[in-house]
Amino acid sequence: MWLLWAREIQALAQTGLAFTRDQYDRERYQRLHTVAAQIIAKHTGLDVRDIDMLFSQQAGYATPKLGVRGAVFHDDRILLVRETADEHRWSLPGGWADVNESPSDAVAREVREESGLEVRANKLAAVWDRSRHPHRRTHPFQVWRLFFLCEITGGEPRTGPETSEVRFFAEHELPTDLSTSRVLLAQIRRMFEHRRRPDLPTEFD
User: Fold this and answer.
1) C-alpha span between 55 and 10 (Å, rounded)
2) Are β-strands 143-155 and 117-129 bridged in parallel, bridged antiparallel, or unpaired?
3) For residues 3 and 17, what is the distance between their CA atoms, to the nearest angstrom?
4) Residue whose C-alpha is closest to residue 106's, from 163, 68, 157, 72
5) What is the rounded average pLDDT for all residues in the chain?
6) Counting beta carbons within 10 angstroms of the beta carbon of residue 69, is it exposed (0 to 12), middle (13 to 18) or buried (19 or more)?
7) 199: which residues sit within 8 A by CB, 6+ positions away?
8) Bridge partners of 90?
9) How confident is the model at residue 137, as a pLDDT?
10) CA angle 142, 145, 151 (to 5 degrees)
C-alpha cells in the first residue's frame, strides 16, 4: 500500500508541476516529489537522492509506463532469453515501448534485439498492471505490460547486447530461475493457454 501512496503523490506532484503557474504551488509540488522519494527510500533502501533525481526527470501529465513482452512459439515450445541485467535469469523477450512505435512494432523490435528472430505480433493476449502481480522488485512508477503472441517470420536465434542465451522451452520444462521482476511463471503459463486456445479473449486487470 505504501508504494501505491508514494506513486500517487509523485504523479500528483508531476502533473501539478506541469500546469501550475504559481511559484508557491511549484515549491509545494517539488516538496511532494521529495516526500514520495523519501517514502520509497525508507522501504527499499535506495538512496533518496537517486529517486528524487529520477522523479525530477519526469515532466508533463503523469501516466503509467508501457512495457511489452513477446510470447514467441516454435511448435509447442516458447522462446525465453537470459537477461544480463538480472543475473542472467530467464524472461520472455521484451522491454519498454519507444516513442513513435506502435505496440506491435515495439514487441517485434524487442524480440529481434534480444533473440535475433524476426516476428509479427498476431494477438494481444494480456494487458497487466505490474503492481497487481507479485513481481520480485518494486518499481517507483506504475507499469502496464502488454503481452503479445508472436509468430516467427525470419532470422536466427542469437544473443544480443542484453541477453546471454536464447532457447525454446516446452511447458513442462520451464526454468525456475526466472527474472521475476520482468515476468512470472503464471504469466508464461497463460501464454501457453492462449496458444492452445486462440479464441481466448485478451486478459486485463
Assistant:
1) 7
2) antiparallel
3) 21
4) 68
5) 94
6) buried
7) none
8) 82, 178
9) 80
10) 170
Write down the H helix ranges in the chain: 2-19, 23-44, 48-56, 103-115, 185-196
- pLDDT value at position 23? 92
- Which triple of cell numbers denotes residue 75? 511448435
* Domains of the chain, residue spans: 2-56, 65-204
What are the pLDDT digits (tens) for 138-153? 888 899 999 999 999 9
User: Which parts of the chain have pLDDT scores under 50?
Assistant: none
Q: Tell me the whole-structure pTM to 2 decimals.
A: 0.80
Pick the CATH number of 65-204 from 3.40.50.1220, 1.10.3720.10, 3.90.79.10, 3.40.190.170: 3.90.79.10
Rg of the chain (C-alpha set): 19
The confidence score (pLDDT) of residue 127 equals: 98
User: Is the separation of the CB atoms in 147 and 153 below 8 Å?
Assistant: no
How many residues does this entry show for the chain?
A: 205
Element (H, E) at 31: helix 23-44
C-beta of residue 200 within 8 angstroms of C-beta of residue 141:
no
